[in-house]
Amino acid sequence: MATLMEIAQAANVSKATVSRALRNDPTLSITDETRARINDAATMLGYSAKQQRRPKKMYEVTVIHKDDHFQTRWNNSFYFSMRFGMEQECFKNKVRCSFYPISYIEQAPKNIDGAIIMGNFSPENQELIRTFFHKGTPLVFVGRECAAPEVMDWVTYDAEQCIRIAADNLLKAGRTRILYLGGENLQGPDERTHKIAYFQRFMKEHPDVGCVDILQGQHGADSGYEIISQWLDSHPDANERPDGILVSNDPIAFGVLRALAEHHISVPDDISVVGINGDAPGSTTIPPLTTMNVHTEEMGRTAISCLLEQITKSRTFSTKIQFTPTLIKRSSV
Q1: Is residue 86 included in any domain, yes or no?
Q2: Beta-carbon neighbour count of residue 106 at 10 Å?
Q3: Is the pLDDT at 184 greater than 70, yes or no?
Q4: CA-CA distance, 300 to 290, in Å (whole number)?
Q5: Does some domain include residue 94?
Q6: Residue 253: CA atoms inside 13 Å, Cβ hemisphere, count?
C-alpha cells in the first residue's frame, strides 16, 4: 500500500498536508485544486485510509469521604495529600473524578466505572456506600479496616509499625517515661487494631519503660492542645510528667506542641514529641515535628491505579496493598 510520503511526492505537497487532507482536517487551508490533486494521487497509488482510531474512553470514578475531611488543611492534611495523589493519577490517565461527602451520597452518580471509599468508616457505613452503587461496580477502600476485603481492593498503611518505630525513636533518645495521646475512633476500625492497642502491646514488651498515662480525645489540633493543657494543669509536679509523648496523628501533636510551649516546657529538652501521618504542616511547627510518614499521596495514587486495573483488566479477585511507614526525623525528639 502506498505511503503518505509517496502521495506527497506525487501531488507535490508536504507529507503533513497529505495527512491532514486525507483526514479532512477542517483547519487545513488548501485550494480545491490541491485537495483534488492529493485525492487523485492517493487513488492512483492505491492508498486506503486507515480507520480512524476511536478516542480512548474517559472513565468516571467517584470518591466518598467523611463530611469533615476537607474542612481545614491544618487538621486534614492527611486527606488533602491523599486527594492530591488521586487527582494526579486521574489527570495522568484521563479519568474524570468527583468527590462526595457521605451526607450527600444521594447526589453522587450511580452510573460510574468505579468508586473509592476514603476514610475509617464503620462497617455499617462501608456497607451503605457499597450498596449505593450498582452491583458489580469496581470498588477500592482506603483506610484502616476494610469490612469486606473479599469484594473490595484495600489500600492502607501499617499502623502497628508506626507505633513501634515511633516508640523506638523515643527510647533511642533516652526517653523512659512515655505518655500516649490518641484520637477517639468514632467509626471503626476494630478495637484490636487501634493504635492504642499497639502501644499497650509495645509497652508490655518493654517493662523497663514506664507508661505515664494514656489519654484519648477528639481529633484535631485544638483537642490536642486542650487535653495536654488540662493534664499538665492537674500534674504540676515536674517529676510526674513524661519525658516523651507519642501522639496518634500529627494534628493532635500540633496542639500538644502549642500547649507545651505555653506551659514553658522545652521540646525536646524537657519532653520529646513524635506524631504519626507525615503531614506537611509538621515541617513548620516549633520545633518541627518528628513524625511517621505513611505516604498518603502514594496511597491516593495507588487507589486510583487499583480501580483502573479492575475496570480495564476485569480482575475478578480483590487485593490488599499496605504501605510501610518511614520516620521523618526532625527536632521534636
Answers
A1: yes
A2: 8
A3: yes
A4: 23
A5: yes
A6: 36
